[in-house]
Queue: 2 jobs
Job 1
Amino acid sequence: MDRFPNAADVDFHSPLDLTKAAAAVLDAEGRISGWGASAQRLLGHPPEDVLGRPAARLLAADPGQRLSALCTALRPRSTVLDLSCRDGHTLRAAVTFSPLAPQGVAATVVVAAELEALRGWEAQLAMLQGLATESSVGLTIFDTDMRVVWGNVSTDLELAGIAQYVGRPAADLFPEGEFISRHHPPDEDQIMEHVLTTGEPIMGMHYRGRAPADPVREHVWSCSYHRLVDARGEPLGLFEESLDITDRYRAQERLSLLVRAGKRIGASLDVRRTAAELADVAVPQLADEVLVDLPPAVIEGRQPPTGSAPGHNLLRMHGRTPEEFRTTPVSYPPSSPQALSLATSRPVVDAATHSSADEPAPADRRSSLFVPLVARDAVLGLATFRRSSNPDPFGPEEQTLAVELTERAAVGIDNARRYTSQHAAALVLQRSLLPQHLPEQSAVDVAYRYLPADSRVGVGGDWFDLIPLSGARVGLTVGDVVGHGVHAAATMGRLRATVRTLALLDLDPAELLTRLDGLVAQDSESRADDGLGDEALGVTCLYAIYDPVSGRCVWASAGHPPPIVADASGSVALSALAPGPPLGLGSLPYENVELSLSSGSVVAFFTDGVVEDRRTDIDSGIDRLAHVLTWQRCPLEELCDRALSTLPPGPQADDATLLLVRTRRLGAGQVVDLELPPDPAMVARARTDTERQLETWGLSELAFTAELVVSELVTNSIRYATGPVLLRLIRDRSLLCEVSDNAHTAPHLRRARRDDEGGRGLFLVAQMSQRWGTRYTGSGKTIWAELAIP
């Protein structure tokens, strides 16, 4: 479809042209002797009504001597007359009188046209003249061979004279220019050929180059191409419109650059990455190269140094990815523009680049701009914008743009520096709250891995622990506080300490989680007004107790993934019991799960960071970990490495904590049980059997102390219990003496007075043992004491 369907109605012929104007001939007396068809169309009078009659009759007003003077003039004269039309209305017309005989007055040719049409034509003519002589739009006409034919004054000025290019191809006008619009062929010859062949105009192409009249400064033009055809529709060539939009284009580029900078600079909370982001945004639109120099303190997350000489002890950032990141030391002399920029906190332009003291000055660098990185009134470093291929110096607007980009980068670097400092402090806090090493136990072999989340996410709240319990048993716990940062780490440390304290009370797992749930809920309520409550009560925990004597393992979970068990044969089992609610909700009770584990079984305790990822669901992660545990005969350290090696590559979104334990069973020769009736006479038997067993174990040196402890514990149980008393001796890393009965009353250590007949038994037990205590079971209680083996 034709873009301009009314273009054929545009006519640049003058209304007074003989092919269009009304024409008549007057004789010497002013009578009409000739009347053309065009005159009839204009005024409506047929020839028979006007021929031979005075022309004055066609005038709407009395002409006086004016018409006679026009007819007798010796040269053409033009005037405006009001003419009477046949339908009675008056037409104001432009009329030209031209004598046919220069000697004498034989006849006069009269040409007339409507005055309004003539004025419109004159306006069009003036417009064309303005385009040719005064318009800022460059107009250039090319023939069908795409050679220059004509250019208006604007084109003449840009080319420093159009005459030297007439007859030359279009490519000679701007030999080093290029189209930067990509929605059409980038070659000018192809564009012009397309317009000539199809007649389809191409408009709004952006062209970048250097005009012959201004070869130093790079310009951008908006160019359009249109085909020229003659009256028969045959191509005559084409013309080009070009408008210099350099200032507008650069303003748009600056705006788009700032928009990109706002999206990209400073989002990573990483000092080195932020420096790379500044370079990525500014190159090549503003500079050919951007260098960022920072003090080591800023990179490490500390406060920038003050009082030192500007330009000394800086590190230059290199690389765009973490694998490429590296630094090189740079230093600038006090007289250099870099040092001046750092000292004054202002940008400095230098046409001939001064390099650092450690870097030779490159000969091809034409212009450099040094901008200090300033945030919160502190100078964090220096950004250097360099140009080599572009000889244009940095103008005021480009300096302003560079300062704005650098300010954004400085804020991002300062935020990254502060985050690095806070993250390091949180990491130190977290690691100080986690166990530095797990105590060796006869019950289990242990290996663990803690993989912190990516630094951009922040320190998490994972914890794990191994807690020695009475009777050679061991408590195992793993937990997770939802969220990241110092608060999550502090909450983790608080909960880990609480779990350890409750575990030493010898509570079973369900009872321990019930008490911990109440404490978390109470703590959250008391701290909610300050906004410091546990992260949306998102605390999960799993606690297990393993007994190496019976091989019994009991565990309970508060919203935490249950452990995965691989027995000695390598078969893997998952718990069928769903975890209870997370801590702090207080809605449902917790249940114990009991397992019987053979010696050599491997149990995996883990947080969701080990099995869950943004790209995979938790079930797939559990299956992946379970598959690793089928290699349970491998050393635990190797199993840990295998498990973490299966994590998806890339940054960790959450902490990953893995605790692997391989169970052991105490042999029959290490445990002795003796059931005694509730008879005081049985105390002597207990002492005798203890002495005999210690001799068998080669621990005769402990006989006196052990007999005294056993005597006091058995005596106390027989006195208060109503059923049989069970004495158990366990030879482990220490000698364990346990006395169990069916009473639920707790013995209390007290200081006996001089005249008291009793009350000294537990005092003696406490003095002679490393540790002692009481634990409760479903059938009663057990009093135990540990004696160090010499």
Job 2
Amino acid sequence: MSLAFAGMFFASPLGAREVISFNDNWLFKKAENFPKTFDEEWQQVSVPHTWNAEDMQVKKNIFYAGAAYYKKQYTPDANFREKRFFLRFQGVAAVAEVYVNNSIAGKHKGGYGAFAIEISTLLKPGEPNEIIVKVDNASRPDVIPINHTLFGVYGGIYRPVELIITDKVNIAVTDYASPGVYISQKNVTSKSADVTIKTKLENKNKETKEVTILTTLYEQNGDKKAEYSLPVRVLPQGRQVFEQHFSIKKPHLWQGLEDPHLYKTVVQILSEGEVIDEIVQPLGLRHFELKNNDGMYLNGKKVPMYGVCRHQDWWQKGSALSNLEHETDLQMIREIGATTIRFAHYQQAEYIYSKCDSMGFIVWAEIPFVNRVSTEEADNAKQQLTELIRQNYNHPSIYVWGLHNEVYTPYNYTVALTTELNDLAKSEDPSRYTVSVNGHQAVDQASNLNADIQGINHYFGWYGGEIGDIENWVKGMEQEFPDHKIIFSEYGAEANIYQQEEMVGEFGRYFSQFYPETFATKFHEIQWGVIAQHPYLLASYVWNMFDFATPVNTQGGVEARNMKGLVTFDREVKKDPFYWYKANWSKEPVLYLTQRRAVKRVNKTTPVTVYSNIGVPRLFVNGVEITHYRQGTTPVHYIFEGVELKEGENIIEAKAGTKGISYDDKIVWDYSEDNKLLNNYSPPKKKTEEHIGL
């Protein structure tokens, strides 16, 4: 699917509805209390904007978390007195209050879901109107996440804002900021698919209005697939729901990365033959099924669930991203060969879910109920889950709704709340799976038995145990819990590319602040080798695709940073484990020599590791071919042991070919006994209390 086609789903203006960018010409000021004057010390900004792009990323516990204000002027056309006006914010972190001409227009709690506020009665058409948004990202017990521990909640209006202008009869805008149109599907096969489109209408006239709901499906080339018309009477009181039921014959199915086919669904409201409102949404016809001890079936065809997790923040940008940053992340995720993405630990940008539809990724979407329980967050958790589902209901890429991540005591409260969240998700969307995530090894942990799927986060060899402990853990679950649906939702190890070590042990040094990239490489080589052999794990997700900010911690000698990413925070360096997964997952040719940043060598005799998915590589060291190798943990893993280095510069080359095309890779190592003085670290000989995980 082309990028142009993807953009059509949210193009504006749409018929009589106008969707106007409201991103420019804001004034910004940090202030705990409402400023007495708005004349001084204001900074002109455009949104997306955050005030934490630097202070949450460079030094721990020095970031500003509190209140700030945004303001701008808007003059509506004097002829728009009979129109309805809405402000729709795609993301404001974390609590917002919106004022129009000094009157409160609305409030919102939660930094990741969109919200829409009607401002019709507060605006003065033909005159300048002042809009002020108070934003506060201080942690509070009634808004999830309740702290900045696992990740920072970047303050600000950090996603786009739209002004929406509609007729008095319109598709609902304030239904949890959803499109107001919900597309359901069932009985999906290559022969037919049953589709129901539910449209929520409002009528703010004094009298009942007779209108027609006209729904048209378009192919990707613009051809009309089908058209359905429904005359309705819209009463002047309340929000009303109308349904259209139809069957699509010989549908072109949405088949993930293989064939992410999308129809364009246009829902129009017609009055006396004129379009008075219009919404455009994607339609991808598909059916997901997770089979125990087997895996994911999409439209009856088994597809691999090669997964990564994604935090949205970027170095020096925080979460205030453009579509370019989102696109860049998705392209790297596609390059690595991933088929599925866990968007952790919160609702992410609307653009990125749309791109996943058009690119074919299978998506896990979740709310930020993470890390700690306050017993005051229940209402907000339910609100954010409702927003997540309603705003993203029509995205075919999403297969599961995430209810929580690693929340426990008090258990009675947490179990009850998770049960309520599961019931809410099933009421809002019976067609998709639900998942909750456990940070323990035990499958029968109380707060994680109330969803369809249990995700388990574990870091064998990092926070506890040894790397290879994963195998006995998986085998134990296979024997004890054969009827459970289990996903390995997080696994990984820190990797600082500026810390290197030739020989590493079986467990990392979490407390030492020495996080060599080479240990993470070994970690992933062993653990993916096990995961790939156990279909009991229905999917697995590497934590994390990208390094990200942890503003209250220091890790790997770097403040405010988590370095478990396969790619550095600035997206400039793809670490060795990135190429490990690319060789195992991607269909693109990969030939890669590891330890390319471990340049200063201390061992004269050393192994050389090559990743190749294009056959057995040939290895040359200083021009001499090394022919003896052994297979590693997967078929792309080649280890040449006992390689002798010479004093000084050593040129290591790998060569392979496929389909008549030759590939090569080269690195340079420097060997000297004096290099030993440069490395004061060595792998631990045995486990001590220092290395026991949290």
